[in-house]
Records
---
Amino acid sequence: MSPPLPKITVVTPSLNQARYLEETICSVLNQGYPNLEYMIIDGGSTDGSVEIIRKYEGQLTYWTSEKDSGLYDAIQKGFARSTGEIMTWINADDMYHRQCLFTVAEIFQQFPPVKWLMGANTFFNEAGQCFLYEDLPYSQRWSRLRLRLFDGKFIQQESVFWRRGLWEEAGGYIEQNYSLAADFELWLRFSRYQPLYTTSFILGGFRFRSENQKSYEQRDQYLQQVTELLARENRGALPLLFYRLLIGLAKAVPKRKWRNKLLAGILDLPPKITFDREHGMVFSRKNDF
C-alpha cells in the first residue's frame, strides 16, 4: 500500500489581482490533490477579487479580506494558521503546472534528504502562455555558496516548496523588514540549515505583466535589499574572493563539458532530481548536467 499523501499548505496573498486571481486559484484547486490546505489572504481588494474568492470558498481551508501590511504580512498570516507537512506560497498572478502538487509529494516522499525543493524555472506571459529562457547548464542548481556569491540569477519562488521541519528550524517566520526581498532573506536563512535541491520537473511559473509588477518596476530597490542581505549574511564568513578567483579560472577552461563540471564542483551544487526511463525519479550524479 502506498503511503498517505502528505498535507501540502499553499498560501495565496492577494490585493486587487482580479484579472489573474481566478487562474491562480484554479491552477491550485484543479490539481485535484486530496490533502491540500489552501488559504487565500486578501488585503482588502476593491476590484472584484472577493467575489472571485467566494466562488471557491467551499474548496478553501481559509480565506479573509482585510487590510494588512503588505505581501509578506499576508503570507505570514497564512502560515501562522497552517498545519501542512509541506509548505509554499503562490502569488495571485502566478500559476502551478498540471500535477505539480502530486510531483512535489512524490519527491519529498521518495527523497528524505530533500528539505526544500525548486522546480525547473518556467514563466507565463500576460495571456497565460508558458515559456522558458535558455540558460547556463547550472543556472537552475543552487548551493549556499552560489547564493552568497550572487551571480544575477534568482531562486524561483513560484516553484519552491519546503518541509515544515525546515521552516521551524529556520525560525518559522517571514522577515517583515524587507518589503521586496523577504523571499531572498528566507532562502538565505534556509541555506544555513539545508541545501536546496532542484528538479527538472516543472512545478510553478512566474507571470510577466505589463503593469503594476513590483519585481520589474522596483527592481533597483529589490537589488538594493538583496545587497544589504548578502552583506549581512557574508559578514564574518570565509571571504568570497577566493571562490570568485577559482570560478574565473574554471571559466577559462576551453572544453565546455569540463568547464561546467569544474564550476559545479567549485560551487558545490547538490545533485538534481531528474527523470530516468527505467527508474523514474532519480538523483543525478553530482557534477552532471
Note: Residues 219-234 form the longest helix (16 residues).
---
Amino acid sequence: MHHSPKEVIQATKLKFSHIDGFQSTLLYQSLHQGGVVGTPQTPFVQILNINDNHWITASDLFCGPNEVCIYDSLNSNITKTTAQKISWLIRPQAPHFDIRKPAVQRQQSGSSCGFFALAFATVLCDGVKPEECQFQERNMRQTLYRSLNDKKAPVFTYQKVQAKPDRATLQVEVHCICRTSHNQEVMVQCSNCNRWYHPNCVSVPPKALDTTAEEWNCEICTT
C-alpha cells in the first residue's frame, strides 16, 4: 500500500467518533517538532508512516499513564524520528513516557503493513486488543478494496488468540515546554535546573547558543 487510504481512514473516524486521533499521516511527515499536529485529549488511535515505507498503528486505548502502544506487523526498530512523532501524540508532563510493543501478528507479504495498520486500528476502536487477533492476511486486500469503493470503515476478519508477552518496552525522555523527545534539534540546557529547551520554543539569547557562552537560566529558574 503506497498511499494512505484517506477515504477509509475518514470513514473509520466517523464510525468511531468517540475515539480521538485519525489525523492525516502527511502531517507527521512534514512538520518540524509537531507543528500543528493535534495532541489528542481523549483516548486515541493514530496510523503513522515510519522509515518512509512502513505503516504502524499507535494508540493509548489499552495503556497506562504516560504510555503508548505501537502495533507493528514487522516489529521495526523505534528510531528517534519515530519516537518523536509518538511524543507529539502524548506530550507528557512527566520527564519521560513509555512505548510498549505488543506481540501482534507478523505480516507474510512485504506489502501488507498498511492492511495490518488499518486492521489494528479498527479492532482497537471495537475494544479488542490487536495482539489477541489472528487476521486472514490473504483477504485483507479485497476487504480494503470493497471499503474504498463503498467509502466505509473496513471490517477485517480475525480469530481470537491468546496474547503473547510484549515484544519490547522503550522509555523515551521528553524535553522543553513542548514536551517532545529530542531528534537532532538544537537545544540549550538551563545552568540551574539542567532542563533542555528548544530556542524556537522559549526566549534564548543568541550568545546562549554558543557552547562557550556564560550560564543561561530558563524562565522557571529566573522567576
Note: DSSP finds six helices and ten strands in the chain.
